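Before we proceed, please read the two lines closing this message. Tell me what the token row says about the fold.
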Amino acid sequence: MLRLEDLGKRYKTGDQALTGINLEVPKGQVMALIGPSGAGKSTLIRCVNRLVEPTAGRAWLDDLELTALGSGALRRARRSMGMIFQEYALVERLSVMENVLSGRLGYVGFWRSFARKFPQSDIDQAFRLLERVGLDHMVDKRADELSGGQRQRVGIARALIQNPEVLLVDEPTASLDPKTSRQIMRLICELCKESNLAAVINIHDVLLAQMFAERIVGLQLGEIVYDGPPNGLTPEVLTQIYGEEDWAATIEAVDDDDNNVEESASGR
């Protein structure tokens, strides 16, 4: 379980990015973070694995207090926190397989990783993951030859090969078309269910959050203003998170999508 207690972040400029964040994300739960730009969503995710250092509060992964770890212990703890980035963070000149195997760098020694000599068990797992994300036919393709959706699938496989306990996902669909966005969100949710992984997904698209996440947390100016199920995002709640807008149209669109999914399922 991921647990945050009164987590806060104030930057050196004096800007308060997060204030008093209290959250528990159990194993197997997919939680979406929504909110306007500048609400603190990316900061929250990065405070968990301490790519950004929190200035208040504590973060726990099961019984391990992440915010109390020194640099060596933190490097080891990051093995348990898979990160999926908005901009993919792949090494462009390396192959799909090599990018996936880079997720094992925290487990192999420096010289083995430098020489790209990974255990056969890691290579076998990489093949299984690439097959699961639909890229087993692209293992030798360079990362810079892939589409956005394919790059994100490589990023997912790279995160999962760490055998993490939690996935931290930062805007996984920001650069993708609507169809690919749904495919990526569906894949992340399926993989979390299969591996009983907790996931925290920072996402701008309210419709995608409502369609795929089982829990929604809304941030406004670094504070939690909503924490509940997707169907609790009423126009009043969305106004509190984002400001005045005709939110009824958004809610109707989600309802229509849900009905289409049910009709498609009943027709199979």
Remarks:
- The longest strand covers residues 16-25.
- DSSP finds ten helices and ten strands in the chain.
- Residues 261-268 have pLDDT under 50 and may be disordered.
- Strands lie at 2-10, 16-25, 30-34, 56-61, 64-65, 81-84, 166-170, 198-202, 215-220, 223-228.
